[in-house]
Structures are given as C-alpha cells and as structure tokens.
C-alpha cells in the first residue's frame, strides 16, 4: 500500500504545480495586457488643471455647467483608454448645460463594471434626466446598461459604437466617423445616425492614434465639435417630444 501512495502523491504534487504555474502565467498575462493602455494627451490633462468646474469623487470625474441643470450624461470610456482622454469632449458638452459624469473603469475597461451607472444615479438625486453614453467598448457596455435599465435613462449616446442589446433606436444617438466603416457595417437601424465625414474611431477622445484605425482627414477638435452639436440636438429633441 505504501508503494502505491507515493506515486499518487507525486502526481498530485505535479498536477498542483502545473495548475499554480498556469494561474501565475494567466495572471501575469492579464496584468501585462491591461497595463498597456492609451494615455490621455496633454491637451486633455490640462483641462483638469485649469478649470474649477471639475471635481473628482472616488472613481468619477464630474464636469458641472456654470448654472444649475437637471440633465446629466454618464460616460463610459473606450477599452484600454485612460478616462481623462475624454475631458475635452465632455468639457464642451457641459458648456451646453449638461452635467457630465466620467466613470473611471477598473483596468480601463468598462466590461468590468458595466453597471457603474447604478451608483452614479444614486449619488445625484437632483438629476431628473439621465443619458448614458460611451465610446467603442464603453458604448457597448452603456448600451447593455440602457437595455437593462430603460426605466432609468432617457436616452443612449454611442460614439464609434452601435446598439448592443434591446434598446429603441429612436432613443439612441449613434455617431461615428466615415473612416470607421466597421461600425457602419453593424448598424441595422435608421434613426438618429450621424456620420462625421473625415472622422475616425479614436478622435472622440484625445489619446493619440489607435491601432488599426485609419488616420482622420479632419482634426480631433472638428470631430468633437460636430459630436457636441449632434448630442445637443439629440437631447433637445428628446426633451421636447
């Protein structure tokens, strides 16, 4: 009996060692993957330094208009993009009279906290009209949230993304650059679609060129300005129906 137990013990030890090694390798690969993300450019970081209408609260950056408002946008960043990269865009949106709440996602990926909007809505009871928005994967997760919480949001705003889940297209604004045709290929609805001529995937934020993205033929400033105009029109349309 003793001679039978020793080989079995060795097998268990070897198996355990293999499992442990695999877990270490997978963990290391994961942290290597998420540590390689797109950083916000200086033009985005400067907004935090210069403006007094921006506050940081836990994992949220809150951009408040200069006057009281009952309307807010919750924004989910794109995958592996530093959240601050979207400050130039959101700073322009808040100047239209809409509070913008930027969510800093775990590991810079909205897929790890797609229901982050729950906590945001709870923290701001004075807001009556909620819109949820996102870029790329952040848009997909925002769309999923809207589909599952349609009674909590007035509308969905997608940048370089498309509806993911069961949410009405009449309550959705979809904006994409003409050089980002992979998005257009997945749009199977017709309402509230804005194509920005010469725009690409990355320029909704300020984090530099993105892999496999075509260079835009317009500036990031122009792409974002058109985006802000479209969002302002959409929110006005939603609130006057």
Query: Number of domains in the coordinates?
Result: 2
CATH architecture of the largest domain: 3-Layer(aba) Sandwich
What structural category characterises the helix and strand content? alpha/beta
Number of strands: 8
CATH level-4 homologous superfamily of the largest domain = Alpha/Beta hydrolase fold, catalytic domain
Strand order of the largest sheet: 1-2-4-3-5-6-7-8
Which geometry do the CA atoms define?
globular
Strand content: 15-25%
Could you tell me the radius of gyration in angstroms? 22 Å
Count of alpha and pi helical runs = 7
- End-to-end separation in angstroms reads 82 Å
| Biggest beta-sheet profile | 8 strands, mixed
The level 1 CATH classification of the largest domain is: Alpha Beta
* CATH fold title of the largest domain: Rossmann fold
The helical percent reads: 25-40%
Keyphrases for this structure?
241 residues; 2 domains; 8-stranded mixed beta sheet; 8 strands; 39% helix
Write up this protein.
With 241 residues, this protein is an alpha/beta fold. It has two domains: 1-36; 39-239, Rossmann fold (3-Layer(aba) Sandwich), CATH 3.40.50. 39% of the residues lie in helices and 17% in strands. It is built from seven helices and eight strands, in the order ααβββαβαβαββαβα. An eight-stranded mixed sheet has the order 1-2-4-3-5-6-7-8, sandwiched between helices. Helix 3 (87-94) crosses helix 7. The protein is globular and about 80 Å long. The protein starts with a helix and ends with a helix. The mean pLDDT is 91.
Short description:
The chain is of the alpha/beta class and 241 residues long. The protein has helices spanning 2-35, 42-50, 87-94, 116-123, 137-148, 181-184, 220-239, and strands at residues 54-57, 60-63, 71-76, 99-103, 129-135, 155-159, 172-177, 193-196.
């Amino acid at each position: 009996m003793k001679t039978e137990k020793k080989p079995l013990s060795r097998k268990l030890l070897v198996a355990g060692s293999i499992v442990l090694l695999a877990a270490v390798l997978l963990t290391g690969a994961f942290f290597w993957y998420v540590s390689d993300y797109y950083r916000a450019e200086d033009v985005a970081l400067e907004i935090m330094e210069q403006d007094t209408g921006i506050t940081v609260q836990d994992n949220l950056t809150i951009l408040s208009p200069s006057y009281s408002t009952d309307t807010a946008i919750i924004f989910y960043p794109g995958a592996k993009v530093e959240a601050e990269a979207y400050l130039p865009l959101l700073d322009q949106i808040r100047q239209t009279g809409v509070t913008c709440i930027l969510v800093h996602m775990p590991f810079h990926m909205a897929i790890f906290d797609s229901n982050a909007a729950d906590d945001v809505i709870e923290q701001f009871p004075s807001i009556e009209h909620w819109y949820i928005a996102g870029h790329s994967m952040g848009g997909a997760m925002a769309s999923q949230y809207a589909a599952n919480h349609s009674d909590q949001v007035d509308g969905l705003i997608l940048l370089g993304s498309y509806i993911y889940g069961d949410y009405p297209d009449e309550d959705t604004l979809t904006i994409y650059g003409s050089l980002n045709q992979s998005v257009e290929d997945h749009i199977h609805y017709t309402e509230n679609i804005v194509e920005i001529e010469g725009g690409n995937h990355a320029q909704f934020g300020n984090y530099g060129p993105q892999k496999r993205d075509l260079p835009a033929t317009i500036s990031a400033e122009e792409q974002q300005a058109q985006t802000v105009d479209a969002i302002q029109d959409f929110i006005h349309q939603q609130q006057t129906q």
